[in-house]
Amino acid sequence: MLKKNNQKTKNSRIFVLLKYLYENTDLEHKATTAQLLEYLKSQGIVIDRHTLATDLELLEENGFEVEKDAQSGASNQYFIENRKFTLPELKLLLDAVSTAKFISGKKSEELIRKLSDCTSRHYQGKLVRHLYTPPSSKYDVKQIYYIIDQIIDAINLHKKIGFQYFDFDADKNHVARKGGALYINSPYYLVWDDSFYYLVGYSEEKEKMVHMRLDRMGVPEILEEDAVSMPEGFRIEEYATGIFGMYDGRKEEIVLECDEDMMKYVVDQFGMEVTTWRVAEDRFRVKADVHVSPPFFGWVFQFNGKIRIIEPEEVVEEYRERVRSAI
After folding, report:
1. 0.70 cut: is pTM over it?
2. SS3 of the chain
């Protein structure tokens, strides 16, 4: 029994040591042998330098990369440098959580706090210091986690889902579309686009692929019926690239003529694989499949004539009509 208790005490001691190193040390903030012994003593754990060295070696042997900085004439210093996420990776994740409109302010704070715990306390301040999201840009969707969970389960089970879909009325109240009747969908993908989260799946009612915002959905019900198989030849990369602001519209092959300095915007929208060719020293053309919609026309309009629709003629005329109707 004494041996068992000693082993339990040793395990607890090593856990306390690891927790301290993980939370308080990094490449810029290291702990000396004396500091580690003093901290352990403050936790009611009294050991000598030899035992501490043995514990640190045991952590290293078990995959915890405790680095030792042994400088000539100075006390050894210990720290944990390699973690699950690097600081830039954590910053990217925190920025994504902070700006995601489908995650409520409260949920964002919870996620940011959890992600911040993946680094030392010294770096936590650096991570959150410059984060700011206007409160008005967040939607208070308390059920978003349940919605995501249900959709992922349905995709994995290859089952259809049924859910209500909501709009806002003039008083900002949620109003269910179709009088509250369920939308039936065969779910295939979850897509994050422009700070919103979308379900991409097949609608039997519309007999085509559709995308719907998760923050406007009720919690889906997983149905007994098997999902419809994904349409042959469907590629999510092409589907998402051709849709502006995830706004539905008829699919058309369009040709754009662009000034030389517009290529960066074309690549941002359509990707590096889009078909382009020069038509003059200072102009080039683009051929791409897009869903013709108000966001597409708005995207073209913002460049003040530097990107122009050339083909097909009916899309050119529709664009002219929309510009005239806006005056």
Report:
1. no
2. CHHHHHHHHHHHHHHHHHHHHHHHCECCECEEHHHHHHHHHHCCCCCCHHHHHHHHHHHHHCCCCEEEECCCCCCCEEEECCCCCCHHHHHHHHHHHHHCCCCCHHHHHHHHHHHHCCCCHHHHHHHHCCCCCCHHHCCCCCCHHHHHHHHHHHHHHCEEEEECEEEECCCCCEEEHHHHCCEEEEEEEEEEECCEEEEEEEECCCCEEEEEEHHHECCCEEEEEECCCCCCCCCHHHHHHHCHHHCCCEEEEEEEEEEHHHHHHHHHHHCCCCEEEEEECCEEEEEEEEEECHHHHHHHHCCCCCEEEEECHHHHHHHHHHHHHCC
